[in-house]
Amino acid sequence: YTMSLSVINYNVHGLGRSAHGPKIPILAEMLKPFHPDIILLTETHIGHNHQEAAFVQQFPEYNVLFNNHTANSCGVLVAYKKSRYLHIQHQLDLNGRVAIVKLRDTFLMCDFVAAVMYAPSVPHERPRFFMESMETIVLTPTLLGGDFNCSWFPLTFLEGQEPQPNRGVQELQDLLGACDLVHSNKNITNFAQFTWHNHNRTIRKYHDHVFHNSSVMRSDGTQIFPYPFSDHYMVRHTYTLSPVTRYIKYQINNSLLRDDAVLVGVYLDECLHQVQMSGSLDRALSSWLECKQNITTYYKHLGKQQIYAQQHRDNILLRSYRDALNGRDFGRASRIKREYLEDLKQRNIKKRLGNSLIYTEYGETVTKGFLDLVKTKVRPDSRIHGLRIGNAIVE
């Protein structure tokens, strides 16, 4: 199955009041039917904490990254759905013009970088802004939107859902040249899907743009909405994300389970088949969780069996060691101890050397990666036949 992505890009020209009333509640009602995954807003003009709180209150299903500035003409934000994305890290500039956030897409289990930029409207300020901003971006955006305040060539698209022509790398390079966009982050120039700035109901200037990485997503179209409190059109982009196959390969490092790698592959093949046959995302996730639980149950059962077998072998070895000591057969006792320590080394258990012997106790399972794997525990004991038990560390 594949996943879609819905993105809103809009210069709101301030989120205070308009002739129609407070803008934030109006904006929330405008966006409600579209259920966007990502919201990119420029010129937010947010200057107080209570304005941030008002925005968050109207968009409770989103986490929001604000970048505000004392200058009323600035301010950008990125909002992303709580149910889908987890915040990893972010980057802001000091002028309230750039916000970048790295997210973990929990549906696809991959990372995604969304960025929004609001360029200066004064022409001679733009080249330096673009150069400094692009040169200092640490995170390479998967999606870069905003108002770049620079025009390309006149367009005559009709209002509504008129499809845009497919534009490739050369067209994007031309646009970047027209905008004096000098930068070293070449990954941004792979592909572009554009939004636009409207003047007098005829699209003449191309100020708002959305760049996307075509190796990650494919544009499915654009919708244009002339909303009341900005001279920019709000634009909704939809994308199809490249399908990502998850949970294909596991590296099982635990020595107790390493020999069972063939059966792991059988379980995973069955899981992937169930997921691929699912008719919806919910069913796919449900199938995977059910299958994962079966794997976990199997390993818990298998782990306990192997733990008991290892405990039995250790008990036999310890009895042999004690018998050798009691019979004053120190050569045999030394050989048993040496072999036992070598066996512990093979089980990734380190021992502090000396006149001591390790006694291992095997306990519960711990989660490692996406499977519950068995991990050994070590219990120091006070005395065994007069020998002090040393410390041990489980790796």
From TrEMBL:
Q: Name one GO molecular function term.
A: catalytic activity
The domain of life for this entry's organism is Eukaryota
A Pfam family found in this protein is Exo_endo_phos
Residues forming the Endonuclease/exonuclease/phosphatase domain are: 10-232
Concerning SUPFAM superfamilies, the annotation shows: DNase I-like
Q: What is this protein called?
A: Endonuclease/exonuclease/phosphatase domain-containing protein
This protein's species is Argulus foliaceus
